Amino acid sequence: MSKPAIAQKPKLSFWQIWNMSFGFLGIQFGFALQNGNASRILQKFGADVEHLSWFWLAAPITGMIVQPIIGHYSDRTWNRLGRRRPYFLTGAILSAIALFLMPNSAAIASIAPPILVGAGMLMIMDASFNVAMEPFRALVADNLPDSQRSIGFSVQTCLIGLGAVVGSCLPYIFTHWFHVQSTAPAGQVEDNVKYSFYLGGTILLLTVLWTIIRTKEYSPEEYAKFHPAEEAEEKPKSGIAEILGDLKRMPKTMKQLGLVQFFSWFALFSMWVFTTPAIAAHIYHVPAGDTSSAKYSEAGNWVGILFGVYNGVSAIYALILPSLAKATSRKQAHAFSLVLGGISLLSIFFIADPMWLILPMVGIGLAWGSILAMPYAILSSSIPAKKMGVYMGIFNFFITFPQIVNGFFGGPIVKYFYGGQAIYAIVLAGIFMLCAALSVLFVQDSKDISVKKALADR
């Protein structure tokens, strides 16, 4: 009996790939606003600098739980809206609501103290981002042939960067272009931050709707033509037991990438949590505990600009990465990017002028662009297509676990080992980024293995 013919997925045009990931532009608006302003908001509500990482634990814990579940069920969802798109829509609606509510936590203080309400909104916001984000990764792998996946994830990274640039800069834009108030009494969030969150929530919802309207997903019948062998297999049991089984059977490449991700995301978490207090104290010389002065607000606004710079660099670099990876290898391109990111983080300690902080943001942007693209391109070549959603979700463990470790221990380390000086958390982030660069060289990329095997068989 002859085997069924395996149809090849057609290549998509640049604009089809662009539309497929356009919703990530809006999601990153929200994500950038969270990264650049959550610590600032929580400090306004009374959080001490050494406790910030504990509040940020809400984000990776919810991601660790939500993403594998969403990935598992999106692999099995086939309805009129599609396979992945129902999750985009649900996540976008919940994310927009959380973005509207978080800066107004003080207004609902009758329910609970503002600091707890703010932390709760941070948890809901990140859980919603995860619901929306995870299926986007799987959608790229679903719709693109392997030859286009590097460019697919790179376009996605470019859109992430573009969204993050504007999202990070919004508080600064509202203040300096539209003269919106940028200071507020203790316990209240500045108007420029509030308006930024409102606009971010609106854009997030609209861009995700664009992807839902403009992107086609393959039907079960079409999917079967591309993966007939998988469809012929006996259907396994569903639920948590299967997720745990998939976790146990994860490919070797995925495990090796896990170490790279641990070092990378430990560093990123430190940067997101501690950059504002580090720069405020180390460069602007803001006294400890001062969160209401114009100088602290200036430092916070400048951090938003700096985050916009590294995201802008990542957006441009993402379009160059496929060519760099083709000229060298995906591993070497990723290692090169991480080295530049690590050196850049370390250099912040030696900078006294805020303007010079733009320079290390360039190196951090190169690392960030690669972190968002290369691991997923390498991973997607090593996992079965029918498990794309669940394995993309499980891969999120290697993103959330280092953040949880950092969240538990980062604050006490800053308090007891660094004497409350958050700048040393940034130095440690640089060291961990260099460790990530070293560990990526030991990853087995199945694309490289296939090329070597083909040459050996000649």
Tell me roughly what share of residues is in helical segments.
over 70%
What is the terminal separation in angstroms?
29 Å
Evaluate the radius of gyration: 22 Å
Q: Which structural category do the helix and sheet elements fall into?
A: mainly alpha
Uncertain segments are 449-458
Sketch the major β-sheet.
none
Listing every helix as H and every strand as E from the N terminus to the C terminus, the arrangement reads: HHHHHHHHHHHHHHHHHHH
Protein name: MFS transporter
Main location: membrane
Transmembrane segments: 12-33, 53-74, 86-105, 111-132, 153-175, 195-213, 257-279, 299-321, 333-352, 358-378, 390-410, 422-443
Membrane topology: Multi-pass membrane protein
What's the layout of helices and strands?
Elements: H1 14-44, H2 52-56, H3 58-74, H4 85-101, H5 114-143, H6 149-176, H7 191-214, H8 220-226, H9 228-232, H10 240-248, H11 252-282, H12 294-327, H13 330-347, H14 358-371, H15 374-380, H16 388-395, H17 397-417, H18 423-440, H19 446-456
Report on the architecture of this protein.
The chain is mainly α and 458 residues long. It is 73% helix and 0% strand. The protein contains 19 helices and no strands. α4 runs antiparallel to α7, α12 packs antiparallel against α13 and α13 (330-347) runs antiparallel to α18. The longest helix is centred in the last third of the chain and has 34 residues, at 294-327. It is globular and about 65 Å long. The two termini are 29 Å apart.
